[in-house]
Specification:
Helix content: 40-55%
Number of helices: 15
Shape: elongated
Oligomer: single chain
Distance between the termini: 115 Å
Radius of gyration: 35 Å
Length: 613
C-alpha cells in the first residue's frame, strides 16, 4: 500500500468516526424514543397510560395537547401512523373551528350567528364526512397526512375584537425536519389563515416531487327547509388569477379539470360557503360534485389542487379559509370576487341588483324594521320611480281602446284575408290619430328587467333567511298553510304544499289581468292568455321564497292603486276629442318619430323591390 492510499483511508476513517459521535442521539432523545416504544407496547397489550391515550375533556374550550415534538425513529413518519384522535377548538365571535390531530385538518366548522332551519347548530361540514389531505412522496412512498397523527403545538383558544392567536400541527421527520400546518384566527372574522410551512424537508421529500397535492372533500349537510332548492343552489365555484370565474352547473354532477393560476375554490351552499383561497395561486386543479337524491345530505363536493414546492430549506405557502355566509356586502369587502358566487341574474339583471336594489335594500335594513315592512317600502319606492312609465303605458292603452271601434270598422271593410292591407289601413288610422301602437308595450318592456331582477334577488338574499312576517316564519323559503303529502302528479306539477303568499300573488295577478283587459279592450286569445299564464306560473312560484311572492303581490296591489289614481285624471271623452283633433291636423304635425321610422323603412323596402326589377 503506497503512502497516498494509506493517507486517504486514514482520513476517511477519521471522518466516519467523527460523524458517528456527531449523529449519536442525546439522552433526551433516547428517553423520548423509550417513551414512544413503551407507549406502543402498552397500546398493543391493551394497557392505557397517560402518554399513550388522551381524551378531550372540553370540546368547546380545552383540548389535551403536548408541546413537545415527536421524533420519527421508527421509519419515516412511522410513529405518526398510530395514535388517538384528539381535537382542539379555536373560535371567535363568528366561527367555532374544531381541528383534529389526525391529519391536522379542520374537522368541523360551526357558524355561531346562524341556526339550521329547525334551529340546530349550523355546521358547514362535520367530522368523518369531511376529508382534508396533503400528499407528497418521501422515502419512496406516497405520504398522506390524513393517515398520520400530527403533534399539536399550542392549545385551544378563543379570540375577540382585534386579538389573534395561532396553533400549529407538526409532522416531524426529526427534531429539525418537519412540516407544519399553521392555523391563525383573528377576532370577529370569518377568515381562518392557513399556512403550510416546511423546515429542512428538502432531503426528506423526494427530489422529483416539485409540488404537494391538496385534496379536500366534504358532504354538505341539510341546513335549509327546502332540500330541492338547497341542492339547486349548492355547487363548486372557482376563480382564476386573471379574474375569470366559473362554476359547475348545480343541476349536473361532473368532474372538471382546471388550468393553472387558480385563486380560490369554493364549496358554495345555498346561503353559506367554505372557500379555500391562495394568497398567490394554485398551480392546477380539479373539482367535482355528486348528488344522491336518496341521501339525507345535500351534495358531495371535491377539490384537488397542486401547491408548488421548490426544495428550499424553509418554505411557506399561505392560504385562507372563508367559513361564512353568502352575504353580498360581506364577500365584496375581501376584494377577491367571492361575491360572484351569489346569483344576481344574467346580463343587465345583475347590474340592476348590484347597483340599485342591494344599496337601497341595505339602507332600508339600517332602520331595523321588520323585513316584511322593508320589502313593502322597497316596492313602494320602485313603483314611484316607475310611475311615469306606468302613466304613459296606461295612456297609450286607453288611446288604443278608444280607437278600437274604428279598427273594427276597418277590419269589417277589408276582411281577414289580406292581412298586409289590413295592417296598412291600421297604420293610416294610427297616423291620423297620432297614436303609437307600441306606446303601451314599450314602458312595460322597460319595467320587465326590474321585475326579473327581483326574481333573482330575493332567493339569494341571506338577509331574509329565518325572518318572520305575519304568518310566514321564513321569508327566504316557501310558506305552507297545507301540506299535501305524497301525491305524485300534483307534487311534480305544483308541489307538496300550498303557499298562501303564492295564492295571494296569483289571485291579485288574475284581478290585474281582468282590469288590464278592460282598459285595453283585449279579446280572443290575447284575453285568455292573460288568465292562463298566472295559473301556469303558480306551479313554479309555489316553491320559491315567500318574500318574492310577497313582493309580486305588493306590486300588483300598488299597480291597482296607480291605475285607479290615473283614471281619476284621465277622461276618456277628452282623450277621444284629442284623437279626433289630431286627425284634423296636417300629417307633418301628427307624425311621431316611430311613425316616421316606419315610413322610412317602407320607402327603403320599396326601393329595394324596384331595384331587383
Amino acid at each position: 500500500m503506497d503512502r497516498n492510499t494509506f493517507t486517504g483511508l486514514l482520513i476517511i476513517a477519521v471522518i466516519l468516526i467523527g460523524f458517528s459521535f456527531y449523529l449519536q442521539p442525546s439522552d433526551q432523545e433516547l428517553n423520548q424514543y423509550k417513551n414512544v416504544t413503551d407507549s406502543i407496547a402498552a397500546a398493543k397489550n391493551g394497557v392505557a397510560t397517560a402518554d399513550s391515550v388522551k381524551t378531550v375533556t372540553d370540546t368547546t374550550q380545552k383540548a389535551s395537547v403536548a408541546n413537545t415534538v415527536s421524533i420519527d425513529t421508527a421509519g419515516l413518519f412511522g410513529t405518526n401512523k398510530t395514535g388517538t384522535e384528539e381535537f382542539t377548538v379555536i373560535e371567535n365571535e363568528k366561527i367555532r373551528a374544531t381541528i383534529s390531530n389526525k391529519g391536522g385538518r379542520v374537522y368541523s366548522v360551526e357558524l355561531k350567528e346562524y341556526k339550521t332551519w329547525d334551529q340546530k347548530a349550523l355546521m358547514l361540514f362535520d367530522g368523518a364526512k369531511n376529508d382534508f389531505n396533503i400528499r407528497f412522496y418521501a422515502n419512496g412512498e406516497l405520504k398522506n397526512t390524513s393517515e398520520l397523527y400530527l403533534q399539536a403545538i399550542g392549545k385551544a383558544f378563543q379570540v375577540q375584537g382585534t386579538d389573534s392567536n395561532e396553533i400549529r400541527f407538526r409532522l416531524a421527520a426529526s427534531a429539525n425536519q418537519y412540516l407544519d400546518f399553521v392555523y391563525r384566527l383573528k377576532g370577529n372574522s370569518y377568515m381562518l389563515d392557513f399556512n403550510i410551512e416546511t423546515h429542512n424537508m428538502e432531503n426528506v421529500i423526494a427530489a422529483n416531487n416539485s409540488y404537494f397535492d391538496l385534496n379536500w372533500n366534504i358532504v354538505a349537510p341539510k341546513n335549509e327547509k327546502d332540500m330541492k332548492m338547497e341542492r339547486n343552489n349548492t355547487t363548486v365555484y372557482y376563480r382564476f388569477t386573471n379574474e375569470d370565474y366559473d362554476y359547475i352547473n348545480p343541476a349536473k354532477d361532473v368532474n372538471e379539470k382546471l388550468s393553472s393560476g387558480i385563486k380560490w375554490v369554493s364549496f358554495k351552499q345555498h346561503y353559506f360557503s367554505s372557500v379555500l383561497i391562495s394568497k398567490s395561486k394554485f398551480e392546477a386543479g380539479e373539482v367535482e360534485t355528486a348528488t344522491d337524491l336518496n341521501a339525507a345530505e345535500v351534495k358531495k363536493m371535491k377539490m384537488a389542487l397542486t401547491i408548488p414546492y421548490a426544495h428550499k430549506a424553509d418554505e411557506s405557502y399561505a392560504m385562507q379559509f372563508y367559513f361564512g355566509p353568502n352575504h353580498f356586502t360581506t364577500l365584496e369587502t375581501f376584494n377577491i370576487g367571492l361575491e360572484k358566487q351569489i346569483n344576481l341574474g344574467w346580463g343587465p339583471l345583475k347590474y340592476i341588483n348590484r347597483y340599485a336594489v342591494i344599496p337601497v335594500f341595505n339602507n332600508l335594513q339600517k332602520l331595523n324594521w321588520n323585513f316584511g315592512i322593508i320589502i313593502l317600502i322597497l316596492t313602494l319606492l320602485l313603483k314611484l320611480v316607475l310611475s311615469p312609465l306606468t302613466y304613459r303605458s296606461y295612456l297609450s292603452t286607453a288611446k288604443m281602446r278608444i280607437l278600437k271601434p274604428e279598427m273594427d270598422e276597418i277590419k269589417a271593410k277589408v276582411g281577414d284575408d289580406d292581412q298586409a292591407k289590413l295592417q296598412q289601413e291600421y297604420m293610416k288610422l294610427y297616423k291620423k290619430a297620432g297614436v303609437n301602437p307600441l306606446g303601451g308595450c314599450v314602458p312595460l318592456l322597460l319595467q320587465m328587467p326590474i321585475l326579473f331582477a327581483f326574481f333573482f334577488f330575493f332567493p339569494a338574499s341571506i338577509e331574509l333567511r329565518q325572518q318572520a312576517f305575519l304568518w310566514v316564519s321564513d321569508l327566504s323559503t316557501y310558506d305552507s298553510i297545507w301540506d299535501l303529502g305524497n301525491i305524485p302528479v300534483i307534487n311534480y306539477i305544483y308541489g307538496d304544499h300550498v303557499s298562501l303568499m303564492c295564492l295571494l300573488m296569483t289571485v291579485s295577478t288574475l284581478i290585474y289581468t281582468r282590469l288590464n283587459n278592460q282598459i285595453s279592450g283585449a279579446t280572443g286569445q290575447m284575453k285568455w292568455m292573460g288568465y292562463i299564464m298566472p295559473i301556469i306560473f303558480m306551479g313554479v312560484l309555489n316553491n320559491v321564497a315567500s318574500g318574492l311572492n310577497y313582493y309580486y303581490f305588493l306590486a300588483n296591489m300598488m299597480t291597482f292603486g296607480q291605475q285607479y289614481a290615473i283614471r281619476l285624471f284621465v277622461d276618456d271623452k277628452k282623450l277621444h276629442k284629442q284623437i279626433q283633433d289630431n286627425k284634423k291636423k296636417p300629417e307633418s304635425a301628427k307624425k311621431s318619430k316611430f311613425q316616421q321610422k316606419l315610413e322610412d323603412m317602407q320607402k327603403e323596402r320599396e326601393k329595394q323591390v324596384k331595384g331587383k326589377k
